[in-house]
Amino acid sequence: MAANLRQNPWRLLLAINAAVIVGVFVHKIQLPPYVPYIHLLVDYHFGFIKRALIGAIVALFTDRVPVWLVFALGGATWLVTAGLYARLFQKTFGFTAKTLPLFVFVAGSPFFLKNFMHTLGHFDIYGCALAIVLLLMPAGSLLFVATAALFATVLVLIHHIHLLMYVPVIITIVVIRHYLTRGRNRTNVAFGAVAFATVSALFFAAQFWGTMPIPEADFVAYLKTRMADPSRTDLLQFAYIWYQPLAKEISDTWGRLPHNILGVPVFALLIWLHTPLWRYFASLIGALASETHRRLVVAALIGISLAYLVMFAMVFDYSRWISNWAVCMFLTLHAVKMLPAARETPPILAEDQKTNIFGMILTLIPRVGIVRPF
Question: If you average pLDDT over residues 132-157, what whole number do you get?
Fold first, then answer.
């Protein structure tokens, strides 16, 4: 029995991952929901402002926002995302003994669902969920491109940093699933260009003209009218972020850099532990039937990574950024698998001892964190 587990531990690792996720959730609900809670309070009451879409939607259903709604809404979003990813994996690879190691490396990665559980209530997961929907839906018509543009617009309204976080992978999915497989013509290229320009303009509007137009004291007073318990003023300590200019965000990030940069070796180690997955990804790219497709996929991966590099220079939530970068890599892997291939790519070997050890270590890591590792 023990020897069998050493040779093929993947079902056990899947069960351990499920238990770890439950543990992360129990720990999470004991922590104060500072930023996620205030995002549920802010709406468009004073006009167009950044980071207000989710709060505006919540305001349609309730005048007073209880703290538990952070966990209810965040938990529901997490469950939907996990279900969507399971469906995507089934569609792309299928659930078999041969694909189980791949599923454990992706779904059980501390970068992915476990870290989304730790960041419950934050806005990152919405980009992941909508990108998965694009990987699942038919891509043959301009409706697919229009849906992607709508999703990108929604994400920028949720938080403008999505232009760097998930819009690049959405563009990658659109290019791979629509333009590379369905062909390019004047109409769909022009439509895509206009959509990208519109989303970019919205980003700049949110970044430079989306600050709160009233004094902070008046803003806080309004937020208290939206709270189920107005005495919890500790939950409003991050109201300043609706007033903070880009220059101040960059200054704060670089001021924290000497301390936060200490986490880079840990991030590098975590990425290295995914080596079997990266090797499989590289094999998928190498097996593509078209040289043009191979070059464009590599260019897309570089583009996604450069967007995250810009984010690293602007905002200091490094653990979240590196985790979402990895998720974008996972989603791009699925998109690449949908392209025509010249040959079959062998799956991650379940019997490889090094792969088993890496899978065990990643399974036991509960999450990556928000700012610094763990």
Answer: 96
Cβ atoms of 229 and 65 closer than 8 Å: no
Exposed e or buried b per residue across 182-213, where buried means at least 16 C-beta atoms within 10 angstroms of its C-beta? eeeeeebeeebeebbeebeebbeebbeebebe
Question: Which amino acid would we find at residue 241?
Answer: I
Condensed to tens digits (0 to 9), the pLDDT of residues 114-124 reads 999 999 999 99
Q: Tens digits of per-residue pLDDT, 209-238? A: 999 999 999 999 999 999 999 999 999 989
Region for residue 298 given its phi and psi (left: phi exceeds 0; alpha: psi -120 to 50; beta: otherwise): alpha
Q: Is the pLDDT of residue 1 over 50?
A: no
Q: How many CB atoms lie within 10 A of CB 169?
A: 28
* Alpha-carbon torsion (350, 355, 357, 362), positive or negative: negative
Helix axes 142-158 and 167-174, enclosed angle (nearest 10): 180
d(CA 268, CA 359): 16
| 132 contacts 81 by C-beta, under 8 angstroms | yes
pLDDT number for residue 348: 86
Handedness of CA 276, 277, 281, 287 (dihedral sign): positive
Cα separation, 267 vs 211, in Å, equals 33
Q: Across-strand partners of 312?
A: none
> Is the pTM for the entire model greater than 0.85?
yes
Give the distance, in angstroms, between the CA of residue 365 and the centroid of all CA atoms in the same chain: 19
**Sequence-distant (≥ 6) Cβ neighbours of residue 304 within 8 angstroms:** 168, 169, 172, 325, 328, 329, 332
Distances (CA, A) of 59 to 82, 140, 258, 262, 364: 26, 36, 40, 41, 39
CB 374 within 8 A of CB 286: no
Distance from C-alpha of 102 to C-alpha of 279, rounded to nearest angstrom? 11
Stretch (H or E) spanning 194: helix 186-209
Closest CA to 284 of 218, 355, 338: 338
What's the pLDDT band for 193 if we cut at 50, 70, 90? very high
Q: Are 74 and 36 in contact (CB under 8 A)?
A: yes
H/E element, 170: helix 167-174
